[in-house]
Task: structure prediction
Amino acid sequence: MEMKNNSMINEFILLGLTNSWELEIFFFMIFSLAYISIFASNSLNILMVTFDSHLHSTPMYFLLANLSFLDILFSTVTLPKMVVDFFREKKTISFWGCMAQIFVAHLLGGSEMIILIVMAVDRYVAICKPLHYTTIMNHRILVASVLLSWTAGFVHSMSQMAFMVSLPFCGPSVIDDVFCDLPLVLKLACTDTYVLEFLVAVFSGLFTLISFILLLVSYIIILVTVWYRSSSGLSKALSTLSAHITVVTLFFGSLLLIYAWPINSYSLDKFLSVFSSVITPLLNPIIYSLRNKEVKAAMNRLRYRHIFSKSNF
Result:
């Protein structure tokens, strides 16, 4: 009750992407297709890993399925409301709905960072210590890694939200973005938030930066190891990891610009918000799974099994 009394406003107003009706119809179609694509591609990835015995027993694909699950949840937190709001003249979100959106987005974002790091470790062990791969990346380690990712995401999100929900919000209530995000909502509090904004930049920015550096270091070690063992295999490893590095750089780069190096540009904030909730979840299944020969083989096996079962029926 005390936290509720500190907040005099009941809802926030989202300005969205545009005021043009024609552009809103266009964006509605684009983002609807994007969400369907994200949901379908990542769900297909999860189904293949779940039902294909070869992929199910491989640590890398177990981690990929968890990454796809996080991408589905993250997009679902932001995109459906964004799509529905294109048909609303007044785009609003309740106070607690906004708080929940921020909490879940940080929970999933923090979890995804840890999963990406574990995936990089998996590739390092597979390439640099192949004889010990099955021993190191065993089922217990994989389950512990997933639990660690969710725990780290929860702790990270709670560290941001612990002070957020108790702040007084008495107006203004306008957020110039497509969904609630911590830095923009923090600026609307009816109190001096300079210290809190600094803490957000430190906690979120440092967490993101350290994760990004760990990933880059692991990729560099992998490339150096491959080059040292066989210079001919370097080009193949580089072609594979370059796509991974690109996705990781785009994902962490957008987060660093939002939290560690905030820029006072609302148009850029909107672009980065859309980028993190649409582009990365779209690219992950393409880069990590659909371009993979083993995944393509699993798709063919599932398709053959489906056709074979129908013919028997």
In short: Strands lie at 11-14, 92-94, 174-175. Residues 1-7 have pLDDT under 50 and may be disordered. The CA atoms of residues 55 and 61 lie 6 Å apart. The chain has twelve helices and three strands.
